[in-house]
Design goal:
The chain has about 700 residues and is mostly beta strands. The protein has two domains: about 35-375 and about 390-490, Neuraminidase (6 Propeller); about 500-695, Jelly Rolls (Sandwich). The strands form eight sheets. Strands 1, 20, 21, 22, 23, 24, 25, 26 and 27 form a nine-stranded mixed sheet that branches. Strands 28, 30, 31, 33, 38, 39, 40 and 42 form an eight-stranded antiparallel sheet that branches. Strands 29-32-41-34-35-36-37 form a seven-stranded antiparallel sheet, with no helix packed on it. β26 and β27 form a beta hairpin. The chain is elongated and about 90 Å long. The chain starts with 6 loop residues before the first helix and ends with a strand. Pfam families: GSDH.
Length: about 700
């Protein structure tokens, strides 16, 4: 059982343990590397976000001459939030240097503050994905006190003339700086006022510097957490190698930690901020009192749930394989660089993760509540970046989108993949194996057309992140084209497939046209494929099927039926198929319902278009050679629904009344056709068939 230590117990325990102790590596139960750490992929949810473009921010460039093409974007906006002054203004930081405000009515952006110019020539943004003007957050009482806080990176002469406040990494090459700003008039559209530096941290590497800073939105005046500033501090890109390999686990240094400070206090070592007395390590010799939680590589984004029990969640970017979501609490240790996710990380192996040691429980690491892995291609150079990175994200508790309530929303930065997990399912597990299921979200424009974030951003690398307004309504923003979208609704995948035509009571033989009539039986209440088909000349496609000839050919179609696989479960590759969009023997769609999901032809959605069947479902993982979980694994009857929107190309397949599809696809190759039933090379049966759709013109 996970030990959720109170702050008091942590203090007592600290007196009994050696200072700055780090759990030693222990012998693993199995010394072999784990080739696929998280075999289960995010599952389709059948739900999509309706996105409305609200702004495109000005084009910008980093300082200097970047050589990394990933820095050469439209701009480098990385967050959107609402100024807490009831004005309705949104704020957006650009890593290249500007802080923008967006008008409440028009959402027209204008520069509120030029951070790069303020700190020139020391301001640095030309190398490292997170370097530059990293983040901004406004004091919850900004309307009265005018205070807000920023982070930025400095290099060059600053390394000679300015000194970090906390222990810097050896060979420091960059400074992460936190500033407090005080606006003379909080209502003004451009900043005028003063600023002061409150904290400076030295980093050896140009990545994983200061990330998000923020205040707890649940804290109210008088609460112990009100006005306390949380800072996510990365490992400087060196948490697993060289001189700084132990920094994330070293409680005497700030790198690889979440810090918690009081900007209004003065009892820190530099006298510019306070160290809250209720921090877990405050007052302990040899340990930084500023530390709230530790063991982090790139603690990219964190957020508090504004409902439920107000938990604090962290989206943590991994090294080899694991993108993860953790709960943070005082003294939490998520394990880096001894662990990556719930796996053993070895600093001498850039290519693999390993099982946990038998005595792992004694270290009390805070393992992920949810996670996904990188699934690199077989020819991937494991010393390079595969292009996966999580960004949270928050639990939606707003009023406008009831379908999203209670869901922790997050993205993959690079691909623009939209995902969520249920907050209620994110539970602690000491072994790290019982994680919450992650689900994919689709995306739609305001006309209801399905889109991807890559299509909306106009680039394969989206650089996507979430933000929200003061009411908790979600926004998405992309560096690729500098645009911001508001989530204005939700939509079910392939909704509206059922049209005005209804075909039922069609079990008689006269209503069906089989490929090989002698292999079929029609007792009146079922359609039975009694003998397996044989391969026929032409493209690779299902061997045997029967087409429903009752009613018209349909464009958009909904099929409801019950199916059964009659081939014994001892046969590993059993299947039946449901056909739709059938035009002729070499032009149709089918969904393959199988007990196997490990090879390309099994358990998915396919198109036959004058050539060998083509797999089109979005669940096929070519890198790992597996698809969605097997749709049918026994010899019982199972309900199946197939929804197909001919105009948008959306297809969704459901089994046994689930609200979430097992397969989804998007293809507009075939406009209309008939439905059917059969098998690739097995036997099975169908009953209770109802077809609804729109007749082809």
């Amino acid at each position: 059982m996970r030990r959720r230590l109170s702050w008091c117990l942590l203090t007592i325990a600290a007196l009994l343990l050696p200072l700055l102790s780090v759990p030693p590596a222990a012998q693993a139960r199995d010394d072999a590397p784990i080739l696929d750490p998280i075999p289960d992929d995010p599952a389709p949810s059948g739900l999509g976000l309706v996105l409305q473009e609200v702004a495109q921010l000005p084009k910008s460039t980093p300082t200097g001459t970047p050589t990394d093409p990933r820095l050469l974007r439209w701009n480098r906006i990385n967050h959107v939030g609402e100024v807490p002054d009831h004005s309705g203004r949104l704020y957006v930081p650009d890593l290249n240097g500007n802080l923008y405000l967006l008008d409440k009515k028009t959402r027209t952006p204008h520069v509120y503050l030029d951070v790069a110019a303020t700190f020139a020539p020391d301001f640095f943004s030309q190398a490292g994905l997170g370097q530059g003007f990293g983040f901004v957050t406004f004091h919850p009482d900004f309307r009265k006190n005018g205070k807000f806080y920023t982070t930025h990176v400095e290099a060059g002469e600053a390394l000679k003339t300015k000194t970090p406040d906390l222990t810097p990494q050896p060979k420091t090459g960059y400074h992460g700086v936190v500033d407090e700003w005080t606006a003379t008039d909080p209502k003004a559209d451009t900043f005028s006022g003063t600023h002061r530096e409150i904290l400076r941290i030295g980093f050896a590497g140009r990545i994983h510097n200061l990330q998000q800073i923020d205040f707890n939105p649940n804290a109210r005046p008088g609460d112990a957490d009100y006005g306390k500033l949380y800072l996510s501090v990365g490992d400087g890109g060196n948490g697993n190698v060289g001189d700084n390999g132990g920094d994330p686990q070293n409680l005497g240094v700030p790198q690889g930690k979440i810090l918690r400070i009081d900007p209004a206090g003065k009892d820190s070592a530099n006298g510019k901020y306070g160290v809250p007395a209720d921090n877990p390590f405050a007052g302990q010799a040899g340990k930084l009192g500023e530390i709230y939680a530790y063991g982090m590589r790139d603690p990219h984004r964190f957020s508090w749930d504004t409902g439920g029990t107000h938990r604090l969640f962290l989206a943590h970017i991994g090294e080899h394989e694991i993108e993860s979501i953790h709960e943070l609490y005082p003294g939490a240790n998520i394990g880096w660089s001894e662990r990556e996710g719930a796996f053993t990380f070895r600093k001498d192996d850039r290519c693999h993760l390993y099982p946990l040691p038998a005595d792992d429980a004694k270290y009390d690491y805070e393992y992920p509540l949810a996670a996904y892995d990188h699934d690199p291609p077989a020819d991937w150079n494991c010393s390079s970046d595969v292009g996966r990175a999580i960004s949270g994200g928050y639990v939606y508790r707003g009023a406008r989108l009831p379908a999203l309530r209670g869901k922790y929303l997050f993205t993959d930065i690079v691909s623009g993949r939209l995902m969520y997990t249920e907050e209620s399912e994110m539970k602690h597990d000491a072994t790290g194996t019982n994680r919450a299921q992650i689900y994919d979200l689709a995306a739609y424009d305001t006309s209801g057309n399905p889109v991807t974030m890559r299509e909306l951003a106009g680039d394969q690398r989206v650089d996507l992140r979430y933000g929200s307004d003061g009411k908790g309504e979600p926004y998405l923003l992309a560096k690729a084209n500098g645009k911001i979208w508001k989530v204005v609704g939700t939509k079910r995948v392939a909704s509206g497939a059922a049209g005005p035509v209804r075909v039922a009571n069609a079990m008689d033989a006269k209503n069906w046209t089989p490929v090989t009539p002698s292999k079929w039986q029609f007792p009146g209440d079922q359609v039975i494929l009694a003998e397996a088909g044989e391969q026929r000349p032409g493209p690779r496609r299902p061997f045997e099927y029967a087409v429903l000839n009752k009613g018209p050919a349909l464009t958009s179609t909904r099929i409801d039926a019950k199916v059964r696989l009659d081939t014994p479960v001892s046969v590993s590759n059993r299947d039946v198929i449901v056909i739709f969009g059938y035009q002729d023997d070499t032009h149709y769609y089918y969904t393959h319902l199988s007990s196997d999901n490990t090879i390309y032809p099994h358990n998915g959605i396919f198109l036959v278009n004058g050539a060998d069947r083509l797999r089109i479902d979005q669940q096929w993982n070519a890198n790992r050679s597996h698809g969605a979980p097997p749709a049918i694994t026994d010899e019982a009857w199972h309900g199946v629904r197939v929804d197909r929107r001919a105009d948008t190309g959306e297809i969704a397949v459901y089994v046994d009344g689930s609200s979430k599809p097992v397969f989804t696809a998007r293809d507009t190759t075939l406009g209309s056709g008939r439905v059917g039933f059969g098998s690739f090379d097995n036997i099975g049966r169908l009953r209770d068939l109802t077809v609804r759709g729109t007749p082809a013109k």
